[in-house]
Predict the structure.
Amino acid sequence: AYVNRGLIAARQGRAVDAAADFRRALEIDPRMAVAHANLALLLIEADQKPAAIEHLRSALQSNPRFPQPR
């Protein structure tokens, strides 16, 4: 539910709300690749590349065949 809410918030341009939802999803399941990947996209847009790289790594560790973030 938090990932879906985060995706909606991101599409509406509410990056802060979207990031909070993706982080909440990761609190529930730290291995949720889709939350890591989408949070990474937001971090890249916010020029927080080192943090984005860590989330991309976590997404790939959780699911090596993970597709592109939405």
Q: What stands out?
A: The mean pLDDT is 93.
